[in-house]
DNA sequence: CTGAAAGCGCTTACAG
DNA sequence: CTGAAAGCGCTTACAG
C-alpha cells in the first residue's frame, strides 16, 4: 500500500545520518538527549519499524527461538502442547524474541536447515527422551539449546523440567503418612516407556525406590498404548490388585477420566481408594477435587525454559544449567 | 564453529559467478544443464545453505506464515490448539514456508509489528469471532490473510472452517429419522457465545431453524462458563428436560466427559438417550463409541487453511474464497 | 548462456 | 557527539 519507510527516510526527515538513527534505536548513550528525542519523534511520526531481515543480515542474529516438536511423537500428543507453545512464545516475546515452530517429522534435518539458514538463534527441544537425536544434532551444530525433559544424559545441554524424582518421593511419603501398605502406580503407557521419556522413567524409578525404603507393597500398572480406554484400564488395574488401598496416577488421559470412571463404578474417593494424581494446574475443567495432587505449573516451566535459553544465547560459555522445578503436593479440597 | 559458507564461496569453487549460483538455486532454465549440475555438486560438497535474512532482504519476502492466536482467549483454550499449530506448520513446511507463532495478548499490535518489520508474508487468524479486530487489522495492513472461523462478515478475507450449518442440519435430520420429538442441545458455554464465536452461533442457529422446520421440541442448555464441571452440567440438563429422548452435544469438554458421566448415572446410550456429538476425529483416547458423531478433521482443515493462504500470497487479486468443509455424520459402532 | 554491478535496509568500526 | 562508508549475503535487471 503506502510506501514503506526506511531508516534513510527517518534520517532525512530528522536531519541526521542513518548511523545516528541506528544508534538511537539501540539506545546508544553516545547520542545526545536532544538528538535522540528528535529522532524518536520522527520515528513515531513516520511510523518507522526496523526491517527485520536487514537487521538480521547485518547483525547475524535472527532474534528467533526455534521450538522443536518431538520427533515421531506418534499418535500421542499432550493436550497441553498447545498451551506450552503459547506460553513459550509469550515469554519469548517478553524477552524480545520471536518464536518459530519447527515441527516436521525430520526434526533433526529441520534443525540443521533452520540453523544453517540463520533462521534461529537457539532451540527449545520439546519432550526430550533418553538419547534423543535432537540433542546430538544441537551439539554438532553448536547452537544454544535448552532441553525440556529429563533424559539420563543431556549431552552438555541446559535442561529444564519438573522434578519428577522429588515429586514421586513426596507422593510416597504421603502414602506412608496415611498408612497405606499396598498401592498401585497407574503409570504412563508402555509405548511412552519404550520411547524412554524421562518423566515416565524417573518418576517410576523413584516410586520403586521409595516403596522399598518405606516397606510399601507396590504394583505398577501401565497400559499398552495411548489409544485404549483409560477408564476401563483404571478399573482393570483395581481389579488386578484388590488389596491396594491407594493409587498414584501418573498419566494424563487417566487423570482426566479417573474421577468419572471411579464414580461410575461406585468407588468413593478417598474412602474406598486414596488417590494422588499428577497434572498441570492448567487442567481446569476436569474435576479432581477429591484427589490429592502434584500440581505442575506449565507457566513456570515455560518461563524457566525461555530465560534459560536467552541466558545461554547471551553467554554461550556459561556453565551448564539443570533446572528442576519441584511442585508441591496439594491435599484434596473437600467440597 | 567452522566458517559459514556463502554463495561467493560456491561461485568461486565452481568457477562461476554469484549470479549463476543464484540462478541455479531458483532453477532458472537459462542456465545450461552442465553448469547447473556442476554448481549443484559444489553446493552439496560445501554444504551450502542460503542465508534466509539475505534472501528476505533482497526479495522482500520472508517465506514465513504468521499464526495469530485469538486475542483474549481467556481461560479457555481447546485441547486441540497444539495439534492445530503442529499441523499448520507441517503443511506450511510442505509449501516451503516457515511458521511463526504470534501469541501475545495485544494480537493486533503484534500483527502490525510483524508485518511492518517484514517478518511474515501472511497471517492465519485462529478462532476468529464475529467482528474480531484482527480482521480489520489485517485489512488495514493489506496483507494476505486467512480467517479460521465463521464470522458473520469476513471483511473481504479468505475464510476456512467446518461447515457447522450443514452439520447441524444433518444432526437434526438424523433426529427426525430416528423419531425423536423432543431433544436437548448441550451447547458451548455462555462465555463462548458472549465472545460471539461463529462455530457456536452458526451451529445453534441452524439447530433452532431445523427444529422449527421438522417440528421437534428443542431445549438449549449452555453452561455459564468453561470452568464448571461438565459432568454435573450434563446431568443437570437431563434433569431439567426429563422428556427429552435425545441430546446433541456441541461442546468439547462435555463431549470428552459425557460417556463417563452418563454411565456413572446408569444412563444407557443409546437406549435411554440417543446422543450425537461433534468432535475432531483426532480425539482418540476418549471413548465415544455409543454416540453418533460428526467427525471433524483437523488435518483437512489445516491443509485447506495453508493452501488458501499460499494461494492468496501468490495472487493477491484472486477472488475471495470461502471454504466450508462439510464433515459427515457417523453412526455409532456397536462393540 | 553467463557475469559485473547495483541494490535491498540495516549496523558498526572508524574518523573527525 | 555525529557522519561517511564498508559490509552483511543475497537477487535481478541489464549487458554482452
What would you say this structure looks like, in words?
The structure is a homodimer of 335-residue chains. Chain A folds into three domains: 7-50, 434 Repressor (Amino-terminal Domain), CATH 1.10.260.40; 64-162 and 299-326, Response regulator (Rossmann fold); 164-297, Rossmann fold, CATH 3.40.50.2300. The longest helix of chain A has 17 residues, at 198-214. Chain A is built from 13 helices and twelve strands. In chain A, helix 1 (7-14) crosses helix 2 and helix 5 crosses helix 13 (298-314). Chain A starts with 6 loop residues before the first helix and ends in a 5-residue tail after the last strand. Chain A has a six-stranded parallel sheet with strand order 2-1-3-4-5-11, sandwiched between helices. The first copy, chain A, is elongated, with a radius of gyration of 25 Å. Chain A has 335 residues and is of the alpha/beta class. In chain A, strand 8, helix 12 and strand 9 form a beta-alpha-beta unit. The model of chain A has no long low-confidence stretch (mean pLDDT 89). Chains A and B meet through helix 4, helix 5, strand 2, helix 6 and helix 11 of A and helix 4, helix 5, strand 2, helix 6 and helix 11 of B. The structure holds a DNA duplex (16 and 16 nucleotides). Chains A, B: Keywords: DNA-binding, Transcription, Transcription regulation. Chains A, B: Residues 5-59 form the HTH lacI-type domain. Chains A, B: This is LacI family DNA-binding transcriptional regulator. Chains A, B: InterPro entries: HTH_LacI (IPR000843), LacI/GalR-like_sensor (IPR046335), Lambda_DNA-bd_dom_sf (IPR010982), Peripla_BP_I (IPR028082). Chains A, B: GO terms for molecular function: DNA binding.
Amino acid at each position: 500500500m503506502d510506501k514503506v519507510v526506511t531508516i534513510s527516510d527517518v534520517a532525512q526527515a530528522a536531519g541526521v545520518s542513518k548511523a545516528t538513527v541506528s544508534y538511537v534505536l539501540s539506545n546508544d548513550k553516545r547520542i545526545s538527549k536532544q538528538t535522540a528525542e528528535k529522532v524518536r519523534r520522527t520515528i513515531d511520526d513516520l511510523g518507522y519499524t526496523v526491517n527485520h531481515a536487514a537487521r538480521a543480515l547485518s547483525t547475524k542474529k535472527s532474534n528467533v527461538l526455534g521450538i522443536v516438536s518431538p520427533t515421531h511423537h506418534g499418535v500421542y500428543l499432550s493436550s497441553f502442547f498447545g498451551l506450552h507453545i503459547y506460553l513459550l512464545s509469550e515469554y519469548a516475546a517478553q524477552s524480545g524474541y520471536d518464536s518459530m515452530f519447527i515441527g516436521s517429522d525430520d526434526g533433526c534435518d529441520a534443525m540443521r536447515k533452520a540453523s544453517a539458514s540463520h533462521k534461529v538463534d537457539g532451540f527449545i527441544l520439546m519432550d526430550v527422551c533418553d538419547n534423543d537425536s535432537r540433542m546430538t544434532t544441537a551439539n554438532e551444530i553448536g547452537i544454544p539449546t535448552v532441553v525440556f525433559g529429563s533424559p539420563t544424559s543431556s549431552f552438555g545441554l541446559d535442561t529444564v523440567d519438573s522434578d519428577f524424582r522429588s515429586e514421586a518421593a513426596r507422593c510416597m511419603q504421603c502414602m506412608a503418612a496415611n498408612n497405606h501398605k499396598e498401592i498401585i502406580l497407574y503409570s504412563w503407557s508402555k509405548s511412552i516407556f519404550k520411547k524412554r521419556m524421562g518423566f515416565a522413567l524417573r518418576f517410576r524409578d523413584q516410586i520403586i525406590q521409595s516403596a522399598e525404603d518405606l516397606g510399601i507393597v507396590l504394583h505398577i500398572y501401565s497400559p499398552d498404548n495411548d489409544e485404549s480406554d483409560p477408564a476401563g484400564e483404571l478399573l482393570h488395574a483395581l481389579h488386578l490388585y484388590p488389596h491396594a488401598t491407594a493409587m498414584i496416577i501418573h498419566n494424563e488421559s487417566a487423570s482426566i477420566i479417573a474421577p468419572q470412571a471411579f464414580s461410575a463404578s461406585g468407588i468413593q474417593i478417598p474412602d474406598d481408594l486414596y488417590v494422588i494424581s499428577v497434572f498441570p494446574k492448567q487442567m481446569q475443567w476436569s474435576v479432581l477435587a477429591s484427589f490429592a495432587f502434584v500440581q505442575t505449573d506449565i507457566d513456570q516451566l515455560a518461563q524457566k525454559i525461555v530465560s534459560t535459553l536467552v541466558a545461554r544465547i547471551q553467554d554461550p560459555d556459561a556453565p551448564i544449567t539443570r533446572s528442576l522445578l519441584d511442585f508441591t503436593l496439594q491435599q484434596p479440597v473437600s467440597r
